[in-house]
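Tutorial handout. Part one gives the primary structure; part two gives the three-dimensional structure as tokens.
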Amino acid sequence: LGEMAQKQSITRSRTFASAVTELAVLEQQITDFCSSCARHLRAQQSVCLQLTVYAATSRFRTDSVSHTIWADISLPVATSNTGELIEYALRALREQFQAGAPYKRAGIILTHILPTAHALPDLFDTRDRQKDERLQLTLDRMNDRFGKYTIQYATATMPAANADASVYKRE
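Part two.
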């Protein structure tokens, strides 16, 4: 009864207040979404085999370029590794990004979720998955203890100036 229910998909998305035309800004948002989704996977002790990244311009505006980014990525190995998910998502985003297009929404969807214990290893996988898992759990514990933004990926969004300043204070 006390176990967390296994989700079939995990989604993080956002509609932007104003259009985003710069790749770096979209990369920050996608990085944040991947980080949040991966942390959720680890919290429920699961991994995913499918990642979808998307971004789209407003379908209601007829005065600007219309463009949609949609990439379904089948992962070679089931993972909950934040860095690995970011790597795949940003590669797909960069391949489909159209400079100057006014993107109004973006998101990440993780599917084909299974318990970590049921994930099958890949014979040809060169990553040290046990080391990666220990690192991810250490980073999660540090962020739990010292604040959400204590450690984050370089492409992540920096918190707003009005965010909790105690997150950044050294004591």
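Part three, for discussion. The radius of gyration is 17 Å. The first strand starts at residue 10 and ends at 20.
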